[in-house]
Amino acid sequence: MLYRGGFSWEHVMSRLAISPDPQLAVPPGPLVDAERRRGRGALSKRSGRFEKEAREEIDDGWGSLDSLDALKTNIHVEKPRAIVTRNDSPDISFDRSINPYRGCEHGCVYCFARPTHAYMGLSPGLDFETELFVKEGAAQLLERELSAPRYVPKTIAIGTNTDPYQPIERRHRVMRSILEILARAKHPVAIVTKSALVLRDLDLLAPMAEQGLAKVAISVTTLDPGLARIMEPRAATPARRIEAIEKLAAAGVPVAVMTAPVIPAVNDDEIEAILTRAHAAGAREAGYVMLRLPLELRDLFSEWLVANFPDKARRALSLVRSTRGGKIYDSTFGKRMTGEGPYAWMVGRRFEIAAKRIGFGQSQTKLRADLFEPPRRGPQQLALF
């Protein structure tokens, strides 16, 4: 199997073998042919952590793998019992969120949500990008939950796990239906996306923002379209994301830019440039997250890194470990978002200095919850009394 640049796995691994640290290298996985996975981020269908068996495609000598079709996106219907997810993490500023979809077609190889596909008996690799779940009836569930007598409104975050504006949203419109419920109920919402499709919903977001009920964060990982295509093949181009920031800001929607994730030796040199472009477009808040590689993502990201950046792989993974106390990942609260150690400290200071110099605000936009009007469900004959 040859990789970008003509390197074989054996050649690349031999380059990394000079280090005694086994975490620098991963064993070759069941890699899918490059033509079959064209336009996808991950390289393989590595089995999830709950699987007892690992499956690998093997040519039977008759060229059978050559006859396989390119990977297609398959849609499955999921019928959840609830749509609002609660959390008590001290690392994040919200206590509730909504994920309209499970899995994400954007194919971002670094996505920390990939391991969640293991709960479905699927691979956090290519299955995460091709086997997608649509949460049917999400708007009705949300309306029911907002109508509960004891419900207390606080900002709902959307897009913190998988992108609510990924390509399948154009057809299924789950995010649109959720936003319509929130708009009618005058409920605050904070959205994170890397898709320009968010502009479709300006007719809802602009009036909500005028009432202090909505804000949007656009994730910009790089300004290089070539690098973006490798890292996040089906997400909007960097230029389209900057354009989305500009149009959201022009419509009066508070916009933040997220330089997330910061990947050592890959995109860490672009922090200042991204902040500069985003601020010029109208973003007034900014944040960053250090690369996170939990569970299966460690091997998925490592094989991608070795395949696409063989000359940077060793340094990149070494720097990743330096931010996690010598490990590939540390989920400790207070450390998992920013890491620790000299390199993590340097990234944090660079970000802070650049953000201040460019003119980003130091505080976050506070959304209102006092305008909330619980949705009315069913007959309301007694509403007049």
TrEMBL record:
InterPro entries: Elp3/MiaA/NifB-like_rSAM, MJ0683-like, rSAM, rSAM_sf. It comes from the Bacteria. CDD domains: Radical_SAM (cd01335). Residues 26-48 are annotated as: Disordered. One of its GO terms (molecular function) is iron-sulfur cluster binding. Keywords: Iron, Iron-sulfur, Metal-binding. Residues 87-327 form the Radical SAM core domain. SUPFAM superfamilies: Radical SAM enzymes. Pfam families: Radical_SAM. The keyword Cytoplasm does not apply. This is PA0069 family radical SAM protein. It comes from Methylocystis parvus.
